[in-house]
Amino acid sequence: MADGSVVNLFDPYAVRAQFPILSRQVNGKPLVYLDNAASAQKPRAVIDALVATMEGGYANVHRGLHTLSNEATEAFEKAREIVARFLNAESPEQVVWTKGGTEAINLVANGLGLSIQPGDEIIVSEMEHHSNIVPWHLLRERRGAVLKWIPVLDDGSLDMAAYADLLSPKTRMVAVTHMSNVLGTINPVAEIVRLAHAAGAPDSRIKVLIDGCQGAVHATPDVQVIGCDFYVLTGHKLFGPTGIGALYGKAEALEALPPYQGGGEMIETVERDRVTYAKPPHRFEAGTPPILEAIGLGVALEWLAQYDRAAVQAHEHALYQHAVDRLQGENWLRILGQAEGKGAILTFAVEGAHAHDVAQIMDRYGVAVRAGLHCAEPLAKRMGVTSSTRASFVLYNTVEDADAFVDALIKARNFFV
């Protein structure tokens, strides 16, 4: 793989050239950015689109009849169509703009919470990000909901037999990640949905929310194939701006949700003694939306669409495997999560060294990785670690990045022995 065969079907060097930040140096070394699972860098196409909109086409959307407002509205709603196409949603009206994945999950949890009764059950997994745990804990605290947990097996995969046993007539919601931000595990989300929809009370189908903040980047987020009621993504991991995300919902699922916030845009009429609400998606988009950010996300997804997803996934996995192969036999290293078909996330613990120290030393060599609990404390406890270090590969990373990562990691380990 060191001979460059990793790029036979895909040219990451041409992609890399489109990211201005990747040409800089850190501590006198070429930047090797492997913190992509936290937030990805932005291509020139997105940067230019944001600048062009601010310089020549910005106005508030929907409310104006003047040229700038019409242009901004058209670009804003076009971005919604792009997200719908990316997810293979049936309609753009099934895409709600949010400020990120966290707000999208909170939107659903708050809406569901109004009808939660004490003893109603919500199923999550041990590998969830805190953003897909804490909103459900709030319903436990405030409404008396019961949280049930799908166990994680030693290889980092979900215990699907245990999941099937957790489903009951009291289950109201199943909320699981498409892809773990720590283990890289890509979950069988279509099967998770199928089992949930086949269970539950006869008069109330269990709803399923998929956290796609990682899966939308590394897997194939086809909501019609998955069959979920809700799917969440965030823009900053998809090479778009921060402060923008999206919630997909089945038409009937969105229609059943009450408003999340009140204000302008989300209403039909407002009178002294009553108010009526807009239909989805605008019912959930109170106030001035993240206009620039939505347009930027649309551009990012259009930019991403020019690359064959299968080729990108193969490239990312080859980089991951190259790093793993080079580290084979290093008995001081423990890799967390080795489920079959996992994505290109390499999370590890170094014997005798704290993850924060490892990451800081690697930064001396220009290698950016993340360290800590990765907003997944229940998973860390399940895996028996107090912290870990994470490298995550995307389409602009190269085999040279993978080699620089391994070299820096070995130097960091040697520092402690």
UniProtKB/TrEMBL annotation:
Domain of life: Bacteria
Positions of the Aminotransferase class V domain: 32-405
UniProt function note: Catalyzes the removal of elemental sulfur and selenium atoms from L-cysteine, L-cystine, L-selenocysteine, and L-selenocystine to produce L-alanine.
Enzyme class, UniProt record, top EC level: transferase
Biological source species: Brevundimonas mediterranea
Listed GO biological process terms: cysteine metabolic process
One Pfam family it belongs to: Aminotran_5
Family per record: Belongs to the class-V pyridoxal-phosphate-dependent aminotransferase family. Csd subfamily.
EC number(s) stated in the UniProt entry for this protein: 2.8.1.7
Assigned keywords, A-Z: Lyase, Pyridoxal phosphate, Transferase
MF terms in GO: cysteine desulfurase activity; lyase activity; pyridoxal phosphate binding
Keyword hit for Kinase: no
Reaction(s) the record says it catalyses: (sulfur carrier)-H + L-cysteine = (sulfur carrier)-SH + L-alanine
Gene3D superfamilies linked to this entry: Aspartate Aminotransferase, domain 1, Type I PLP-dependent aspartate aminotransferase-like (Major domain)
Cofactors, names only: pyridoxal 5'-phosphate
Xref: PANTHER family: CYSTEINE DESULFURASE, CYSTEINE DESULFURASE 1, CHLOROPLASTIC
Protein name from the UniProt record: Cysteine desulfurase
Lineage: Bacteria, Pseudomonadati, Pseudomonadota, Alphaproteobacteria, Caulobacterales
